Amino acid sequence: MFPIAALLFVGAIVWGYQEHQEKNSILIKAENQYQRAFHDLSHHMGRLHDQLGETLAVSSASHGMQRKGLVNVWRLTSQAQNEINQLPLAMLPFNKAEQFLSRISNFAYRTAVRDLTKQPLTPAEVKMMKSLYQASDTVNQELSKVQDAVLKDRLRWMDVEVAMASEGGPHDNTIIDGFKAMDKQMGAYPESDWGPSAMSSDRKMSSAGLEGKQMSAEEIKSKALAFLGAQARGGEVSVSEDGSKTDMPAYTVSVKGKSGSPIQLDYTRKGGHLLWFMNPRDVKSSKINFDTARNKGSQFLVRHGYKSMTPIAYDEYDHVAVFTYAHTIDGVKIYPDKVTVRVALDNGEVVGLQARDHVFAKKLLTPGKPKLTKEQAQKGLNPDFRVENHSLSVIENDMREPTLCHEFVGKVNDHRYRIYLNAETGLEESIEQIADAEKSLYR
Asked: Which end of the chain, N or C, is less packed with Cβ atoms under 10 Å?
């Protein structure tokens, strides 16, 4: 038995050594990736500070250089955000820094895409950029301290993971302390006037603009039962309040459905507007066709007060048809004002509704009149684009402003697209590729 035991012993040593080598190889690779992301972050944050300075240094009449500088600010901020996401900081409170970078990115992008010759930077925006330039300098100083410590003391990012994973232990790691200081510096940056571009991009859903009175839990319960009808007959009902201290207090209603699965609905407290409805029952087969499912969805919307809605998108999975409808005014589709309906393909029952966009959409009384005719706008299309369908629609442009467009549906390069041309200028506002499942909408 001794030779066999010796052989097993030697084998165990070899196996353990190989496992140790593989583990070290993985750790070294992860450490190298963390180090690369960190030093790239430090470089791009430094370039971000320089680019802000260069953008401020050019003449206010140099709109081309301002646009170029803002595009570079947006690019560098996006790269910095990506590198932060590659670092092991998931357990470290870093939300202020991420929000700070996100707002810079949104501001730079949406300012760069607007026509600065017609909408130049306002004095408030220039003042904000100067403050931002100073703030980025402070942040870079903190980041440089961390970088110097990493290089001088040969600090390892794997130790950061261990430090943050230790429950209840003091997080006194130099890198962690440095990033906490960096987050604090970004959080200390005062709220300022980020200009019309950033205000439009940083939009938040709030109940302040909703119509109606403050609803009680009992009133919401009655609305939910009336909405569900036979689906909730005899089921147990519970109502809970969510977000009472936020900008959008709401109620969640849970009803035991006929299938035994809990049906859930969300309502705003102000006005009692339905945001979301879901009946998560199993749908095991497809027995109805596209036209029947679409009719079921349209009838459901009319029955519940969602009038003048036109299907604009379609998808299908797990025997459920998903239709997106847009509100229509005088034949013009208002894309920001939309709802999504889920129809079970076994019996045509509507098992889901997403109405948040409809509730918070800016309500238009009229879409306006196009300055350009269909024929005039069509001249701006690619000559190879074969038009199959045309309509007028309102979409949100890059500034999130409602914009009346000529919508052309057609094919080019063996793919089908929607192309939106501004009804006043004829310029492209947006282009979307149409999924194969949506072909039925354009028959």
From this structure: N
Give the three-state DSSP class for 275.
Answer: strand
Q: Is 173 helix (H, G, I), strand (E, B) or coil?
A: coil
User: Do 57 and 185 fall within a single domain?
Assistant: yes
Q: In Å, how far are 34, 121, 176 from 166, measured between CA atoms?
A: 19, 48, 13
For 126-147, what is each residue's pLDDT tens digit? 888 888 888 888 878 877 877 7
- How many distinct structural domains can be found in the chain? 3
Spatial contact of 227 and 279, defined as CB atoms under 8 Å apart:
no
Paired tokens of 207: 């109940």
Question: Do residues 178 and 251 both lie within one domain?
Answer: no
Rounded distance, CA 327 to CA 385, Å? 27
Structural domain span for residue 60: 2-201
Q: Give pTM, 2 decimals.
A: 0.65
* Residue 366 forms part of a structural domain: no
**Chain segment 191-249, per-residue pLDDT in tens:** 444 444 443 444 556 677 788 889 899 999 889 888 888 776 666 788 888 776 677 78
Residues 307, 299: Cα–Cα separation, whole Å? 10
Residue 189 included in any domain: yes
**Dihedral Cα 50, 54, 56, 59, nearest 10 deg:** 180
Half-sphere exposure of 76 (CA within 13 A, CB side): 21
